[in-house]
Design brief:
- The complex is a heterodimer.
- Chain A contains eight helices and no strands.
- Chain A is mainly alpha-helical.
- Chain A folds into two domains: 7-108 and 206-232, no CATH class; 112-191, no CATH class.
- The longest helix of chain A has 31 residues, at 124-154.
- The radius of gyration of chain A is 23 Å and the shape is flat.
- In chain B, helix 14 (393-400) runs parallel beside helix 16 and helix 15 (406-415) packs across helix 16 (431-444).
- Chain B has a domain at 328-357 and 367-511: Rossmann fold, CATH 3.40.50.
- Chain B has a six-stranded mixed β-sheet with strand order 6-7-8-3-9-10, with helices on both faces.
- The relative contact order of chain B is 0.10.
- Chain B is an alpha/beta fold.
- Chain B has helices spanning 3-7, 52-60, 62-65, 87-90, 110-120, 125-139, 154-166, 184-199, 235-239, 243-248, 262-265, 343-350, 372-376, 393-400, 406-415, 431-444, 461-476, 488-494; strands spanning 10-21, 29-37, 41-45, 69-77, 80-81, 94-97, 172-176, 203-207, 220-225, 228-234, 288-296, 320-328, 332-336, 360-363, 366-368, 377-380, 449-453, 480-484, 497-502, 505-511.
- Classes of the chains: A mainly alpha, B alpha/beta.
């Protein structure tokens, strides 16, 4: 079963989850809500056939959670325990945001994203620049790999040499090629009408469906519960 | 005066245009005048830097709107004065296919790319979908839909680029060296696309170094030199130009010698190449570079604790499968084959970039394994910008070998004609000079096996010739040179042998 969400729903999810991870869970009920909120994006990942990453996240989160509740008490002492407490706390606290962001990035196409931004009346200037940034990541990755190969061939390696030089060797060719590609890219884009005065249309037809409404309600509820507990309960 | 031009069916008219880019030392176009009729197909030829690209940019408006500079004269395209027309208003009129498929895509997937133009000019979604279906059907690219642009081969990328330009239904189509990164099959494909456009009555202007595939498509040929149009031929005149004249103009030949590629055009069925042919010209040990056990695949075999070694018996799973191969030492060997059949993989494995490939190289009775291969060999990459790291040519060479004395360094630079540039920044040099800096650092590192990945793609005839001579010179110094190429003219200029690779196997090694 494949669940396809509207990009606006996804953005809303990110927004809520990042707000909630900044508030701490104090009662068992809040913990339950928080865990539920984390499980939702994992399930969504599975629905999009991203089993490997879903299982990895689930495992990571579950282990951190179990450790937090069982092994770590107020009397925990020693360096090892200090590290363990630190790691587990960070994972338990921030994994929800990480997983949601991963899900959104992996399942949203650029044109869907652009079209949803347009529907929300975000100015084209912002939308297009964000789209270009997303378009550029794979390019940077390709260029970076090519430069790494070249360095390997020249026998330039980390260790031995100094770190500043290493950065320089990597960054200079990378910057050069990214600037060149960016320049050619925008020249090609303007010859195909980018930046015109007419309103850009989109063949991506975005509509909220049942699953979008359900998720929006669920996440709003989560936020409401946390806010109520933080500010209105004494 | 301009108003009359549209009446006598000139769709493009360029009137006494001079143009100089900002920061350039001289004019790129000098008083160019040109009229093009509707439905004409035009070929622009001439050396790199002669002004072909600037001419193309005049017509699509990138000059003066995107690339700034000084410009005088008038350009009228389809009745519009270019200098007063915004670029986005030209989008539905002029379409441009650029040279580098890597940098002309705005989307990351093929579908998004085809509809990008129509979306920009705000067409109705239903109309866009209709256009997309039309184009896809016409260009026969169903199999490329819903793919990531980063996974496509050069030829496939260029087809998507053509489709996305055609989706705007422009009357005028410009192609700026479209075949630079393509193999012969992909060029044939491009040719079919151009024929299709021609039959639709579009006005087509092609700037190109490779002439054989366009020579019978064009109505007129313009020779551009130093910023002006110095010659003009009709199709008949051009096709009958004597060989000497073609050479005089430093143009690439009108006919390619297909015999190097006879294996390319034959449809080999996969059975016949399942077994590695016993090739190697019967070379003695001392005259040869012996490669053994080159097996490689980009996907790993499933493993539990340790990666499994690749073996010959893995058969079709492997992207490279060469149990033993003898290459003649001190020669220039052209590595040929289709796009995506393992030429680059072969070179990458050979120079040790793929550490999962456990092949060994034997030269003069000495065997090189694993990372020793990196020291033995050096690859000059297609985009040479990636392998220049320092701020001066001399430092670049010294970087390869810390123990190198300054004398030897200068010697190497001298032998490559780079001595005058020793204190310049490598990035400030021309493409050919950069290539030579990379070669210089390879020589400083003491590499005996020099590998070149498509060194002449997009080069004009005289630059290609220079690269060819350089390769020959390297071979005469005793280096073994392997060059992967689609360029039959390069093979003719410099290669002693051709090695044909198909589906990761070395199929034949022939003398040129």
């Amino acid at each position: 079963m494949k669940i396809k969400l509207d990009p606006r729903t996804k953005l809303y999810m990110i927004f809520i989850v990042s707000a909630v991870v900044m508030m701490s869970a104090t009662t068992p009920f809040l913990w339950a809500v928080r865990i539920l909120m984390t499980v939702i994006p994992i399930i969504l990942l599975m629905c999009n056939k991203r089993y490997a990453s879903a299982i990895r996240f689930l495992f990571l989160y579950a282990v951190a959670l179990v450790l937090t509740f069982t092994c770590i008490t107020e009397d925990s002492k020693g360096i090892f325990m200090a590290f363990l407490v630190g790691y587990c706390a960070i994972i338990v606290q921030f994994a929800p945001a990480m997983i949601t962001a991963w899900y959104v990035v992996k399942t949203t196409k650029i044109d869907e994203f652009v079209s949803s931004m347009q529907k929300m009346h975000v100015p084209d200037g912002i939308t297009i620049s964000l789209a270009v940034v997303m378009r550029f990541f794979p390019t940077i990755k390709e260029e970076y790999a090519a430069i790494s190969d070249a360095m390997k061939m020249r026998g330039i390696r980390f260790g031995g040499g100094n770190a500043v030089k290493m950065m320089e060797f990597r960054m200079i060719p990378l910057l050069f090629s990214c600037v060149n590609i960016g320049d050619e890219l925008s020249a090609a884009a303007v010859t195909r009408g980018l930046g015109g005065k007419v309103k850009r249309s989109s063949i991506v037809d975005l509509k909220f469906k049942v699953q979008d409404y359900l998720l929006i309600i669920a996440f709003t509820a989560v936020l409401a519960v946390f806010i109520y507990n933080k500010y209105f309960m004494k | 005066m301009d108003n009359t031009l549209t009446n006598n069916d000139n769709i493009i008219s360029i009137n006494k245009v001079c143009q100089q880019y900002k920061g350039a030392e001289s004019e790129s176009l000098k008083k160019v005048s040109l009229n093009i009729k509707k439905g004409e197909t035009l070929l622009l030829c001439g050396a790199s830097g002669s002004g072909k690209t600037s001419l193309i940019r005049l017509i699509n408006g990138l000059v003066p709107h995107y690339y700034k500079g000084e410009m005088t004269g008038e350009v009228t395209v389809a009745g519009k004065d270019i200098s007063k027309t915004e670029l986005y208003d030209l989008a539905g009129i002029v379409g441009t296919v650029f040279q580098n498929p890597r940098s002309q895509f705005f989307s990351v997937d093929t579908d998004g790319e085809i509809v990008f133009g129509p979306e920009n000019i705000g067409l109705e979604p239903s109309e866009i979908k209709k256009r997309k279906e039309d184009i896809v059907q016409k260009m026969n690219i169903e199999n490329l839909l819903e793919r990531s642009l980063f996974d496509l081969s050069g030829g496939e990328k260029q087809r998507i680029a053509c489709a996305s330009v055609a989706a705007l239904l422009p009357e005028i189509i410009l192609l700026d060296e479209p075949s630079s990164n393509l193999d012969i099959d992909a060029i044939e494909n491009l040719r079919d696309i151009i024929i299709g456009w021609k039959n639709e009555g579009k006005t087509i202007i092609i700037s190109e170094h490779r002439l054989w595939y366009v020579k019978d498509l064009v109505d007129r040929v313009l020779y551009v030199k130093n910023g002006h149009i110095s010659h003009e031929w009709t199709k008949e005149e051009f096709n009958n130009l004597p060989k000497e004249e073609i050479e005089y103009y430093k143009l690439r030949p009108l006919n390619i010698r297909t015999d190097y590629f006879h294996l390319l055009s034959e449809d080999k069925n996969s059975d016949s190449i399942d077994n590695n042919a016993n090739i190697g010209l019967g070379l003695e040990d001392k005259d040869s570079v012996i490669l053994r056990d080159f097996y490689f695949s980009y996907t790993n075999k499933t493993y539990v604790f340790f990666k499994k070694k690749f073996k010959e018996s893995d058969g079709s799973f492997l992207q490279l499968n060469i149990p033993e191969l003898r290459l003649p030492k001190g020669k220039v060997i052209g590595v040929i084959g289709h796009n995506g059949t393992g030429k680059s993989t072969f070179l990458r494995c050979l120079c040790g970039l793929e550490s999962n490939c456990k092949g060994t190289i034997e030269i003069d009775g000495k065997e090189y394994k694993g990372s020793q291969r990196i020291n033995l060999s050096y690859m000059v990459m297609q985009d040479v910008n990636h392998q220049l790291f320092t701020d001066s040519v001399k430092a670049e060479v010294m970087l390869s070998n810390k123990d190198l004395s300054e004398e030897i360094c200068l010697d190497i630079l001298n032998s490559l004609g780079l001595l005058d540039y020793k204190d310049q920044h490598p990035m400030a040099l021309s493409g050919g000079q950069k290539q030579r800096v990379a070669i210089a650092s390879a020589m400083a590192a003491g590499a005996n096996l020099l590998l070149f990945d498509e060194p002449t793609s997009g080069l004009d005839y005289s630059h290609m010739e220079k690269v060819g001579e350089l390769l020959k010179e390297l071979a005469s110094m005793g280096k073994t040179v392997l060059v992967s190429t689609h360029d039959s003219e390069l093979i003719e200029t410099c290669c002693d042998h051709t090695l044909f690779i198909e589906k990761g196997r070395a199929v034949s090694l022939e003398k040129v």
